Amino acid sequence: MPLRSQAVSSAAVALALLVCSGPALAQPALLQPALMQVGPSALPYDARRGVFTFAPGLEASLPAVVQVTTLGQSSGPSSDADDPKPYASGSGVIVDAAQGILITNNHVVENGRKFTVDLTDGRLFDAVLVGADKATDIAVLRIVPDGRPLNLKQVQTVDSDTLRTGDLAFAVGYPLGLDQTLTMGVVSGLNRSGLGDAVEDYIQTDAAVNSGNSGGPLLDSRGRLIGINTSILSGGMGGGNDGIAFAVPTRIMLYVADQLRTHGEVKRGETGAIFASLTAERARQMRLGIVRGAIVADVAPGSPAERAGLRDEDVVTRIQGRPVVNAGSVNATVGIAAPGSTLSVVYLRGGHEATAALSVETPVDSPIHIGVDRVLAYGATLRDLDGEVQVAAVEGGTPAAQGELVAGDLITAVDGLPVADARAAAEALRGATGAVAIEATRNGETVTMSLDIPPTA
After folding, report:
1. Distance between terminal CA atoms of the chain?
2. pLDDT tens by residue, 426-439
3. Annotation marks residue 137 as catalytic
């Protein structure tokens, strides 16, 4: 072993012995890192028992962690519709003791007919579903009073934006059929996405999380809620813990829970832009000096993104002042932005940085969208080309596809009326119903197709 490595190892051993001996032992000044100093930053120490412990900060939060059991109709010839059977179990955490409100995962309560909540003191209560959001895997339950005093405890919540990689993290829940279990790790990553949900900006931790922990809290070293445990990555066939778990941060959880309590659902807006994660390969192709960001993959005609000036292949690097790691960072921010709000966006185009004010608007269910340089009408993208109306693309399964429009067609008339540009074609379709005749030129020949437009469109 090289001398330098041996010296470092010896110092580490000496430091470990100093830590283990307790704060009463005098420490040489050269071996006193910041975390070893006396005062608020010192490791929690129980002098009576002579042990280091995080129990004082965590114990107040543990009664707020509950077991959630979901009951549904059993299957088979003896199934009784009036006697739902337990089929899923997970964890939850009480965030409002006065109202009996607790947070858990959507996948814990999904398709359930009845729910029960086990408290740490042994009491069992029924609960009702306030609302659930599949996009974030968050659900809200309310404990139903039955005449007994509830005397519930709630957890204190902290802003997850204050987290740093390396912070201690504690997962609490009811894994693998066990009673309430506490495991410790660190925040091993932030802004994780790509696991399959629509709105993802997860906290990654190596605190042991297993089946049954779903919906339980991830706490900091003071026992404050920083996230809701929702999933794990496992390399083994059994799906056990491999030290990679993910939690929905409180930044997202609080918005979703408030929406569910207020509306029973999450009212989301849209920007009209589709984002893809910037990869190293794509960064090389675009000659970028960065590998983190979100590429604008598509901008809908007439959408807020188009009005904000965003174009295909713009690379978003910051949104609302937050660094963009990948597409999940953008989708997570848009996913918890109330309709009517405006998001500040920083992006790169052609190697130059620019900013935009991106509006989040209530989705409009319309088959026709008119943009600056193209139109989307009943699944067909139309654009002006040398004084003609060209069909640039056709989405499968739409009225345009069923009417046998194909990319490359040059539309000349709609319902017998000549059209000079894409906007005129869209306006002609907007007022039409039933079978609408579309005349077009295809490979130099005139063809007539019938576009079936529903009356309610």
Report:
1. 77
2. 888 887 878 899 99
3. yes
